[in-house]
Amino acid sequence: MSNPKAMSALRPGNERISKTLQALMSKPTTLISGLLLLSIVVSAIFAPLIAPTNPYDLATVSILDGRLAPGDEMFDGTIAWLGTDGAGRDVLSAIIYGLRTSLIVAISSALIALTVGLAVGLTAAFYGGRIDAFLMRIVDIQLSFPAILVALVLLALLGKGVDKVIIALAIVQWALYARTVRAAAMVERRKEYFEAVTCLELSNARIIWKHLLPNSVSSLIVLATLQTAHSISIEATLSFLGVGVPITEPSLGSLISNGFDYVLSGAYWITFFPGIMLLATVAAINIFGDQLRAIINPRISK
Amino acid sequence: MNPTKLLSIQGLRTEFPTPDGPLAAVNGVNLEIARGDVLGIVGESGSGKTVLGLSIMGLVDQPGRVTAGRITFDGTDVTNYSEAQWQGLRGNKVAMIFQDPTTSLNPVQRIGAQMIEAIQAHRDISSDAARQIVREAMVRVGINSPDERLEAYPHQFSGGMRQRVVIATALLNAPDLIIADEPTTALDVTVQAQILRDMRRLCRDTGTALIWISHDLGVVAQIAHRVAVMYAGRIVEQGATEEMLKSPSHPYTVGLMASMPANTPRGQRLASIPGGLPQLSNLPKGCSFAPRCTHATEACEILPDLCFTSANHAVRCVSPLHERGQHATGD
Amino acid sequence: MLAFILRRIMQSVVVLFVMSLIVFSMINLVGDPVDMLVNPESLPEEIDRVRRDFGLDQPAYVQYWKFLTGALSGDLGNSFIFGRPALALMAERFPATLELATTALVIAVTVGLPLGVYAGLRPNGWGARIIMGGSVLGISVPTFWLGLMMIIVFSVILGWLPVSGRGETAVFFGIESSLFTVDGLKHIILPATNLALFKIAMVIRLTRAGTEEVMAQDYIKFARAKGLSSKRIVRAHLLPNILIPIITVLGIEFGTLIAFATVTESIFAWPGLGKLVIDAIVNLDRPIVVAYLLFVVALFLVLNLVVDIIYAVLDPRVRLQGEEG
């Protein structure tokens, strides 16, 4: 990621952006994963409009509809294409709403982690020396532990709740952003013109904002994409283990966990379909992110 | 087919596909080499000389491949050899030595093992017997206390030593031909001279033919009986070394000679040929050298053939220089 | 070499000390374990008694000092739930986790390495595309969900393999393991494969990248020029060179396998460390959580050290540098 050529390739500029988009659209895998991703995001945003029923409106959910197989007709005449769960909720609707929770958690934690990581990474790169060494030491230690373990412990301390999960995931991720930003900014710092810039008595903030930040953008976009996939996965795992989001706001992970109880009795769909959705979401982001990386930084993809 | 010729290449073309269409790194090369002959191939980097060497070995990396022409080795057409057939030939009848001795040897395997495997790939022979051959080969290239050296790893050797190991390895199966791709370029000048001398002696003693690829006409002049000058994938001039050095005919060869330090008086800047190699994907229509040539005329827009100007000298130029009585060397 | 190891051990001790401080203060910042230990309707005096009994009434630094001195003598406190030493509980559960993680690692390497080499040797072929596509899928599939699917397919529908537990164990060369009994093997296949899947994808990617890099090296070209067969080149020249970085990464990844075992053990009810710690987290069993964290930190430090030593042994450039210097 420290390839100066690749960095300059992503200097913000409309031409670059449109070229990147063009390159993305020209490959079928990227196009398909991109479209899939788009439809996932759209259905999450417009969940109330798209979902056949509202799974959290207790007035419409009937226990009599419990454990209907995919394609069965529910009490009120709607067809449960993906079946219903033990409480009589339409699995398809639950998935669309669950997707919403999963994405909210993943994206907001990514944004927080990105902000913190950006601040730490740029500070380290700008001041260098001891500050840099100290900050990067913390980053190293944090990164030497598996994300799932750190998140697990944090949630054990913080307790349940969507906000708690977001905080835990942000803490898990910030270090990676900090390291990436620092690496990209250091490349710029080592260039000769940087000395000239620092001599101009520009304010520190301006130097950081105008010169160090733009060079981190490309690697950040790629990292944020792949990290979002990763945190969706972690959130699902945590919720599955019972330390994630509460039952009142189920994510895809809690839906899968919920369905696990019915697996042994043969009602596979309650846990199967949320899992497929989770897989499709994560895979689409991963493939899209890989292609994005290949286009932005061809050297690494090789 | 001339039976005395060890290697004969006709119309060889090696292409690499690129998004802008195929790129011919070797573009219609004809060459012949007899047993015990030493042929120098000279050209700047990107002229196709290395790819030519690799083509003869069947070692062109995918997706590149030989698309036209014929390679005949010892009377057998090897152009369409299968990988297994090439394996039987490589290291056995034809060996190749590469430019950088620091990277030619596997860093995590002992020297001895790397040499022994070269013998056992071609001969059903015990490790002890193979070790004996290796020991002799090492002594031949001037490595003392071979037993100790066999147990060492490449990083414990100097660059010159490593290249001697590589040369000894190439000689293990007494090949008929060795292709040496700039084997001394990465070495110190003194080591370079020693290796050059050793190679000449070894080839003479064993009757091994040698193709010496180099960008340095001076080095080639010291070892080769004949020289072929390559430019943009084609041979532009070919002939007996002495005759060519005395009366170089192609403007490119003249330029190469003028840029040799030995031909430049002390204190004077080295001459250089203006411009750079043309893009192989976008060659000029006629003579590839025309855009850089001070003698270029409209006639150069048609590609000239490689024509003999004497029994031992051929040149690919519409107006070869010595015909006009010009001599580049200042004798 | 010895000086290097000693220096690394010193560093590790410092990190371990700092981590114990962090872990301890983090645990003390949130949550009151007394709530877990007593009946919500207990009298205040009752609560105070429990608090005193467990030493929870003293200032944090005193608690830490007690904890640290205890830890140095091998006492990490008693579990609030089980009322037994945390270390003893962990020692009981660890072999099961170690067995699971090791089996998973073996599966990851035996499956991932050949596929990665194949994909690296023919990077543009169809086989490579399928393998690499599969590895993206492998990284994307949430481990726990795949575990559930494996249970549905192999246990519920096909009925081939048991759903949960460790099965029978047997003692062999002084090691107790379920790998030595048929029943045990049946029990370990699903969880170990499940745990291995993510690593298989990782090994494939690492191996492919390494293969492509090494195959472009001059010594491979020279080996081909010697007339060696492709098989011999892969075995004698490619593998020794790519194995060094792969072993390094895998050594460190072994720690993450132990960490990820928490998830797998929960799904398959595997009686290991991971299940112990998940239960402890849910029940706010502080000593177990602290002991587990310190154990993981220590494990990571040891693994890093071992990996560095293995690396030095494998790579003659590093090994001989030490001898000559």
End-to-end CA span of chain B:
41 Å
Strand order of the largest sheet of chain B: 6-7-8-3-9-10-12-11
Envelope shape of chain B? globular
Give, in order, the helices and strands of chain A: HHHHEEHHHHHHHHHH
Low-confidence stretches of chain B: 323-331
- The overall strand count of chain A is 2
> Which class do the helix and strand fractions of chain A yield?
mainly alpha
**How much is the average pLDDT of chain B?**
85
What percent strand of chain B? 15-25%
CATH level 1 name of chain B: Alpha Beta
Strand content of chain A: under 5%
Number of helices of chain B: 10
Principal-axis shape of chain A? elongated
Helix segment tally of chain A: 14
- Cα distance, first to last residue of chain A? 13 Å
CATH topology of chain B: Rossmann fold
- CATH architectural designation of chain B: 3-Layer(aba) Sandwich
Characterize the biggest β-sheet of chain A.
2 strands, antiparallel
Radius of gyration of chain B: 21 Å
The largest beta-sheet of chain A arranges its strands as 1-2
The beta-strand count of chain B equals: 12
Explain what this protein looks like in three dimensions.
The complex is a heterotrimer of chains A (302), B (331) and C (325). By secondary structure, chain A is mostly helical. Chain A is built from 14 helices and 2 strands, in the order H-H-H-H-E-E-H-H-H-H-H-H-H-H-H-H. The longest helix of chain A is centred in the middle third of the chain and has 37 residues. Chain A is elongated. The N terminus of chain A is likely disordered. Chain B is α/β, with parallel strands linked by helices and 331 residues long. Chain B has 10 helices and 12 strands. The longest helix of chain B is centred in the middle third of the chain and has 18 residues. Chain C contains 13 helices and 2 strands. The N and C termini of chain C lie close together (9 Å). By secondary structure, chain C is an all-alpha fold. Helices cover 77% and strands 2% of the residues of chain C. Chain C is globular, with a radius of gyration of 24 Å. In chain C, strands 1-2 form a two-stranded antiparallel sheet. Chain C has a domain of 180 residues: MetI-like (MetI-like fold), CATH 1.10.3720.10. In chain C, strand 1 and strand 2 form a beta hairpin. In chain C, helix 6 crosses helix 8 and helix 10 packs antiparallel against helix 12. Chains A and C meet through helix 7, helix 11, helix 12 and helix 13 of A and helix 1, helix 6, helix 7, helix 10 and helix 11 of C.
